[in-house]
Design brief:
The chain is α+β, with helices and mostly antiparallel strands and about 100 residues long. It contains two helices and six strands; from the N terminus they run E-H-E-E-H-E-E-E. The chain has one domain: Alpha-Beta Plaits (2-Layer Sandwich), CATH 3.30.70.100. The strands form two sheets. A four-stranded antiparallel sheet has the order 2-3-1-4. A two-stranded antiparallel sheet has the order 5-6. The N and C termini lie close together (about 10 Å).
Length: about 100
């Protein structure tokens, strides 16, 4: 089953998000199992929603690329995980 995760980063600005995305975006785009990344501002920070082929693919990417680069005092995000039942990308419908 495909894996979805919504991450909310309280207090993160667009500039901070842009800096993170500049580092991790190209890596994620080439990562095995990566499908999509969507992000935008919230009232008090920033959110990201990602879709991966599996939780194992997501976990591997985080362990190999993200966690080693985070500072020890990085804020803890609010995370919501979900199974992806269907997804639609322009011109494509996937169940």
């Amino acid at each position: 089953m495909r894996y979805g995760i919504r991450t909310e980063l309280a207090g993160v600005t667009q500039q901070q998000y842009d800096g993170m995305h500049e580092v991790f975006g190209p890596l994620a785009g080439q990562a095995p199992g990566f499908i999509a990344h969507i992000a935008g501002p919230t009232e008090g920070g920033w959110y990201m929603t990602e879709v991966w082929e599996s939780k194992a693919d997501y976990d591997r990417f985080m362990q190999e690329h993200v966690f080693p680069k985070l500072p020890p005092d990085a804020p803890r995000p609010k995370i919501q995980e979900f199974e992806v039942y269907s997804r639609q990308i322009k011109g494509q419908l996937h169940a």
